[in-house]
Specification:
With 302 residues, this protein is an alpha/beta fold. The protein is built from twelve helices and nine strands. Helix content is 50%, strand content 13%. A six-stranded parallel β-sheet has the order 3-2-1-4-5-6, with helices on both faces.
């Protein structure tokens, strides 16, 4: 049976994307590539304008972007920026909408945002993502979702467009954000481990490419090790995950750990390295620039 226009409309929700930075713009393009109607808004309007060439409607205000949308996707910097965006969009938010909150904000901010969203009307889904710039642009993120499964059918076209895989964690918002912190702990300690290996290779006069070749194909090799090392050694520090953002997430992990009495020595050290690299001017570069927090004075990568 041929689907009616009404059926097609239900299958293709209108999506408002609030936040069109590196991740948000990539996710918006994945949504457009899947044939969804996208309204895009960014606090700095000029950063959203290029999405018009891909077919998005670029809104002047957050309220304009969300009015009439079925799903509102937030991909901003932190909890306070999400809260500010919700305040700006409040006049256009209403019951029947779903807020897919994908910014990494930590458990405490998630609880606050869920309460704020309930007051405004939409159903809140705690939905942080795992992945960086390229997966966002390719619709290949992993999305962790916690919230009422009653809205699952409504958001599935959105989740299918932005992600390779969706992990439904729990019915209660917060569970996905906690999982995201565990996942990011793995990423953060891994990237600093890579940086320290390259620092030590440099200090001991070991060719870093020889180190990478020695690891290649063995049980301890990873695509992440090879890819991040190659990017650093070739001088490509274009951010797929900016160092300042990694530092923000590291602090969220430490806050959550301290609240539960867990000691994370490696994450503490990672925070210190990220902070030194940021202070040296590398905050806007890819997080592998943590290498510069440990290299010998005057040395250069590779």
């Amino acid at each position: 049976m041929t689907p009616s226009a009404a059926d097609t409309a239900r299958e293709r929700p209108v999506v408002a994307v609030l936040g069109t930075g590196t991740m948000g713009s990539g996710m918006a393009r994945s949504l457009l590539g899947a044939g969804l109607d996208v309204r895009a808004w960014n606090r700095t309007h000029a950063r959203a304008v290029p999405l018009a060439d891909d077919g998005a409607t670029v809104a002047e205000t957050a309220e304009e972007a969300v009015r009439g949308a079925d799903v509102v996707l937030t991909m901003l910097n932190d909890g306070s920026s999400v809260a500010a965006a919700l305040d700006a969009a409040a006049g256009g938010l209403h019951a029947g909408q779903v807020l897919l909150q994908s910014t990494t904000v930590g458990p405490d901010a998630t609880a606050d945002l869920a309460r704020r969203t309930a007051e405004l009307g939409p159903v809140y889904l705690d939905a942080p993502v795992s992945g960086t710039k390229q997966p966002a642009e390719q619709g290949a993120l992993t999305v962790f979702v916690a919230g009422p499964t009653a809205v699952r059918e409504k958001v599935e076209p959105v989740l299918d467009a932005i992600g390779r895989r969706t992990v439904w964690v729990d019915e209660t918002p917060g569970a996905a954000s906690r999982l995201k912190l565990v996942v990011n702990t793995w990423v953060i300690t891994m990237v600093n481990n890579i940086a320290e290996c390259l620092n030590l290779a440099e200090a001991l006069d070991v060719d870093p490419w020889t180190f990478l070749d020695a690891m290649k194909g063995g049980p301890l090799d990873t695509a992440y090790l090879q890819g991040k090392s190659a990017a650093l050694l070739s001088g490509d520090l274009a951010p797929s995950f900016a160092l300042s953002t990694a530092l923000k997430d590291t602090r969220l992990i430490l806050d959550a750990a301290r609240a539960t009495g867990v000691r994370l020595d490696l994450v503490e050290a990672s925070a210190a390295r990220f902070a030194r690299a940021e202070a040296a001017g590398h905050g806007g570069e890819d997080m592998i620039a943590t290498y510069y927090a440990g290299r010998a004075p005057g040395a250069t990568a590779g």
